Amino acid sequence: MFFAHRAAGFTQCCEQTKTLECLNKRPFFLSIRPAPFRQTPCCARAACRPYLTAAVDTDNGRCSSTTCRTTAANRSEYENSEFDDDDCSSEFSPRNFLFEEPTKYRRVMLKLSGEALQGGLGFGVDPVVLRSVARDIAECQVRGVQLAVVVGGGNYFRGANAWEGLDRATADYVGMMATCMNAICLQSALESLGVPTRVQTAIEMKEIAEPYIRRKAVAHLEKGRVVIFGAGTGNPFFTTDTAAALRAAEIEADVLMKATKVDGVYDCDPMQNPNAKRYERLSFEQVAQERLGVMDETAITLCKENHIPVLVFDLLQPGNVLRAVLGHDGIGTTVDE
């Protein structure tokens, strides 16, 4: 079998029809390499994704990528089986591969700030930020991390800051629709990278998303799919931070990661005070006593009662999501017991 590079004007070819069928289901790109490489069947099948650039040196037949190492058993399993769409995210999951740096968490709830998604545009979704976030999520997912996402809607509308004449409940429902728009945008960005993704919403909209069902969400995660939760809790007067904490408790997440516009929790507003101190670690009690505004009180209480640590970090720094999942030091502020 032989693959030629498709990136940067190169073309891709394959001698096996089965692998071509696999590639036709998902976009697939290989990074440009200075020497000839070929892709193994198991890599093509298990990862069919542009962000997993696992290539095998033709001399020794072993994977040269630092993010993927294949086995003879995997290759044999691929060659003797039929391909279907769910295989990439179930029996041929990224957990079949070994990585040099293990992840710290098995199941992660990622809360994405809507305001951070707007980047420098001031409104809507910045495509550059969206692609960067999608790539980070893809890098986590290919390492076998079960990743659920709650997106805010502040880049479109904030119910708490509704204009005069619009009551709070109505404004919150408008904000829920904004979170669904962000969820669909993120789903599209992830699927363009070949990441299996499902959107579940707390308010039914069957034409564009699944209704939220806890057991189904967990099943998706266990099959390697990224699950994006939209519409908050489905009820007014609750923030998307509370929705993230609630969903984290329901799916039994190991950590709630809040990706926002700032690189952690400060003792005062760093935008107004250049001498503001950033905390490396806080307790739930300290957050409540000092009213540090990490999340609203309901969300903090849910996390505390369910023993879910919270990590607050900067979304706009490329690679931060992956660094946080890997457990690198110095990424944001950790809030725990």
Automatic annotation (TrEMBL):
Top-level taxonomic group: Eukaryota
Q: Where in this chain does the record put each Aspartate/glutamate/uridylate kinase domain? A: 107-314
Xref: HAMAP family: PyrH_B
Q: Does the keyword Nucleotide-binding apply?
A: yes
Copy the pathway line from the protein's UniProt record.
Pyrimidine metabolism; CTP biosynthesis via de novo pathway; UDP from UMP (UMPK route): step 1/1
Q: Family per UniProt? A: Belongs to the UMP kinase family.
Q: Which organism is it from?
A: Tetraselmis sp. GSL018
Enzyme class, one word?
Answer: transferase
UniProt record, GO biological process:
'de novo' CTP biosynthetic process; UDP biosynthetic process
Q: Output this protein's name.
A: UMP kinase
Q: Which CDD domains match?
A: AAK_UMPK-PyrH-Ec
Q: What is its EC number?
A: 2.7.4.22
Which InterPro entries does the record associate with it?
AceGlu_kinase-like_sf (IPR036393), Asp/Glu/Uridylate_kinase (IPR001048), Uridylate_kinase_bac (IPR015963)
Q: Which GO terms describe its cellular component?
A: cytoplasm
Care to name a GO molecular-function term for this sequence?
Answer: UMP kinase activity
Q: Name one Pfam family in it.
A: AA_kinase
Q: What are the record keywords, sorted?
A: ATP-binding, Kinase, Nucleotide-binding, Pyrimidine biosynthesis, Transferase
